[in-house]
Amino acid sequence: MSFNDLGLIEPIARAVSEKGYTTPSPIQAKSIPVVLQGKDLMASAQTGTGKTAAFVLPLLQQLASGPRPGAKNVRALIVTPTRELAAQIQANIDEYSTHLRLSNLVVFGGVNIRPQIRTLQRGVDILVATPGRLLDLHGQHAVNLSEVDILVLDEADRMLDMGFIHDIRRIQKLLPKKKQSLLFSATFSSEIRQLAKTMLHQPVEVDVAPRNTTVETVSQRIHPVDKGRKSALLQHLILDNQWQQVLVFSRTKHGANKLVKTLLKADIPAVAIHGNKSQAHRTRALADFKAGKVDVMVATDIAARGIDIADLPHVINFDLPNVPEDYVHRIGRTGRAGAEGEAISLVSADEIKQLRDIERLIQDTLERDEIEGFEPEHQLPESRQGGQPRRRQPSEKSGGNKVSSIDQRKNNSRRRRPPRNRKPSAA
Fold this sequence. Notes:
Elements: H1 10-18, H2 26-36, E1 41-44, H3 51-64, E2 74-79, H4 83-96, E3 104-107, H5 114-121, E4 124-129, H6 131-139, E5 150-153, H7 156-161, H8 165-174, E6 180-185, H9 190-199, E7 204-207, E8 218-224, H10 230-241, E9 246-249, H11 253-265, E10 270-273, H12 279-290, E11 296-299, H13 301-304, E12 314-317, H14 324-331, E13 341-347, H15 352-362, E14 367-371, E15 390-392, H16 400-413
Parallel strand pairs: 1-6, 1-7, 2-4, 2-5, 3-4, 5-6, 8-13, 8-14, 9-11, 9-12, 10-11, 12-13, 14-15
Helix pairs in contact: 2-3, 3-4, 6-8, 14-15
């Protein structure tokens, strides 16, 4: 199947072609026809499978004809949990609507509300919003949601996790009863199904991947290490392998800040991104990371939602998440759209429970791979396959041929910076 088989109008098909896409992903192939038929939809897919285009493309087509919105009115509303994801969705809308005469606006907290109010005065075809800022704007009589034709809830599972359910209920009461509703979620939990019952009318269900599975193009393994030596091991991996684009996950905001300070002392350019950072800082940090100005971005789970970087080669779990489903979301930042990637977890003895929960969830055992010189004092339990963990020599590059090919591709696509005078890493 090609995009031409999905019934997209010429301006949208042309924009898709100009981005170099010819074949829709499974979630796109199954969702787009449903949305074009005007039906409500519950869709589930792994991260990195083209989920955003699965609702943006048909939404644009539904809006391509029809009257302009009146003052303060909105024709399509997309609600999403984080600022970064909202901005990413708007970027996709801009790209795919380049040959259409449709207006859009993204609104979220942490930035001045006045420009958002001024733009809404004219009305917009598509509004992308985080729940809190949307309700703030409505409270200031800056937006009218009673004329919304299409509602999209993106990452509904995360909005429930982040405590937005009451905000979603409030938003729901502001919307007309007759509208098309699309709900996208990584999982169809009982809570999601309960939400869908109150918001969707006879929805079509699309589920293109087994629940909580990981992307096949991502190689996964763990490096057992004592908790106090994780930072030193991370520095060793980055310097020894000459990695230049690494997304590192920390369990806490404080831990993220502390790790960045340690990396900077080792002359490894790094930046933190989490909820306590201003929106200006988060936007600048993400832009610098994408542009290769910093090698490492340390993020918390919530701040990392919406980070969409083509060919991101390395994701490191500095701390294992407390919620095992977050492991799947984390490593989904790499291996996107069929590209190869690797996910490495630095696991200490006090994280055995989290490790077991993750392996139970993904129904797989992660390879134990000790790095010589960083062997832990307290051994992790053996994998279900049994046997001792593999021990790698310090000079042996991480990831073998697969990772080398990723690094080589990045070296060819982006000019390497000249070597820096590295300071010795702290043990």
